[in-house]
């Protein structure tokens, strides 16, 4: 019996050491050397060095003076990241979308872009298509008392053109640039 148990236990201990300690340490070390910014969360800091968020995680912005992110199925909490799993036929989803559309709707702008009404697969996508940002321009320009043309320049500067896929805008980075351009009173 010990001829089978001893090698089995030795193999379990060896694999635990390799896969539970050595491999994670090696990957972490390589990531810290090769990609330190990404390995540490892609943190976004303000002028004073304060962490304001991550370039990889959406945040909630409240008020007319901010560009709004996509809705989040998990209230922007990373622990609860994921889709809501509500089917398109679910009345709760229809009610949420209807409520969001009513609060964001501006008659002169036309229908609210879908990206401002639907959550992403993770519930934390920090990017919006430029069309969803453009829909918000008049509201933000009025609240910040900045011309729409100047804000459009800011959006153009913040628009990312990935190698694959359509252009996107990181809402946190855009709002930080917006705050540098035209700070909100009392903020």
Q: What string, H for helix and E for strand, traces the elements in order?
A: HHEEHEHHEEH
Number of distinct helices: 6
Q: In whole angstroms, how far apart are the ends?
A: 72 Å
Domain module tally: 2
What oligomeric state best describes the polypeptide chains here? single chain
| Helix percentage | 40-55%
% residues in beta strands: 5-15%
Subunit structure: The system is composed of three essential subunits: KdpA, KdpB and KdpC.
Family: Belongs to the KdpC family.
Keywords: ATP-binding, Cell membrane, Ion transport, Membrane, Nucleotide-binding, Potassium, Potassium transport, Transmembrane, Transmembrane helix, Transport
Subcellular location: Cell membrane
Structure description:
With 187 residues, the chain is mainly alpha-helical. The protein folds into two domains: 2-36; 42-181, no CATH class. It contains six helices and five strands, in the order ααββαβααββα. The protein has helices spanning 2-34, 36-39, 91-104, 130-144, 148-158, 171-181, and strands at 43-45, 51-54, 127-128, 159-160, 168-170. The protein has a three-stranded antiparallel β-sheet with strand order 3-5-4. Strands 1-2 form a two-stranded antiparallel ribbon. Helix 4 packs across helix 5 (148-158) and helix 5 (148-158) crosses helix 6 (171-181). The longest helix has 33 residues, at 2-34. The chain is elongated and about 80 Å long. The mean pLDDT is 86.
């Amino acid at each position: 019996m010990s001829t089978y148990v001893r090698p089995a236990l030795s193999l379990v201990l060896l694999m635990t050491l390799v896969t539970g300690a050595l491999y994670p340490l090696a990957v972490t070390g390589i990531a810290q050397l090769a990609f330190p910014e990404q390995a540490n969360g892609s943190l976004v800091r303000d002028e004073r060095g304060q962490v304001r968020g991550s370039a990889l995680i959406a945040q909630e912005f409240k008020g007319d003076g901010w560009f709004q992110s996509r809705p989040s199925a998990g209230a922007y909490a990373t622990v609860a990241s994921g889709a809501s799993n509500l089917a398109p036929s679910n009345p709760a989803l229809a009610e949420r979308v209807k409520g969001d559309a009513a609060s964001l709707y501006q008659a002169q702008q036309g229908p609210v872009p879908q990206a401002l009404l639907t959550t992403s697969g993770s519930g934390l996508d920090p990017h919006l298509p430029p069309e969803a940002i453009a829909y918000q321009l008049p509201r933000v320009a009025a609240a910040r008392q900045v011309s729409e043309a100047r804000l459009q320049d800011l959006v153009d500067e913040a628009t990312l053109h990935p190698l694959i896929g359509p252009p996107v805008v990181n809402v946190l980075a855009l709002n930080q640039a917006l705050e540098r351009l035209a700070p909100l009173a009392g903020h």
